[in-house]
Amino acid sequence: TKALEQKISNLNKIIKEYLEKRKELQSKKDFTVDKSLIFTRKITVKSLPSASSANQKISIQKVSSPPPLKPLEKMTNFQKIDKKKEIKPLKISIKLPIRKAKPSIPKVDARNSLTTKSIDAKHLKPQMPMKFFSPNGETTAQENYKPKVINFIKELQNLITDGGSSLSVRLCEQLIADLKNSLKRPISLNDIKLAADFFVKQEQLE
User: Coiled coil located at which positions (predicted)?
Assistant: First the structure.
């Protein structure tokens, strides 16, 4: 076995040396110049110029001088102004269009105008105390003089406006519907007055 291992080792060395030599030959072959590119013509080198030819005179052309400038007076003749002639100012008539004055719009005092506030649905929830409302819906003597058919929505809106606030028709209708559900009975004109008074007071507190 040792003899076989020695033979294998020697064989590997021989193969390695062969491969290295092959690489060297291949690299030399790659760098050889092709015969078609070899120059066959002799290169001739000219001799340097002698000292006598270097001392030849160099003819220098005379630089042509620029043409003489014209006198300054001739160049500025066009700028001279005849003092005898008077320069008259140009008269330009400009007609401006006459605009008619627009009628002034009187300013409205913001304190006197009613401001409508955006009210969320949470403000319409019946948080007013139910103890002020009559459980049986009794009417006062003054209500007996009112007509039998009363528009509660319009009446509620008018009462709120008279109190210094405002509420849209849709929100008045929703407020009356919530009031009916809370009282669980038909509402009366007195209920509308109490609801309007409570609403105006809540608006003033905010």
Answer: 1-35
Nearest Cα residue to 185 out of 131, 113, 151, 135: 135
3-state secondary structure of 152: helix
Note the Cα 78 to chain centre separation in Å.
57
Are the beta carbons of 183 and 133 closer than 8 angstroms? yes
What whole-number distance in Å separates Cα of residue 133 and Cα of residue 194?
8
Q: How far apart are CA 201 and CA 189, in angstroms?
A: 19
Using CB atoms within 10 Å of the CB of residue 180, give its burial: 0 to 12 exposed, 13 to 18 middle, 19+ buried.
Answer: middle
- Rounded to the nearest 10°, the torsion over CA 7, 13, 16, 21 is -120
**Best CA proximity match to 165, nearest among 126, 108, 113:** 113
Q: What is the pLDDT of residues 176-203, one digit of tens each?
A: 888 888 888 888 999 889 888 888 888 8
DSSP H or E segment with residue 91: none
pTM of the model: 0.33
Q: Please give the C-alpha separations between residue 203 and each of 93, 161, 176, in angstroms, as whole numbers.
A: 64, 12, 17
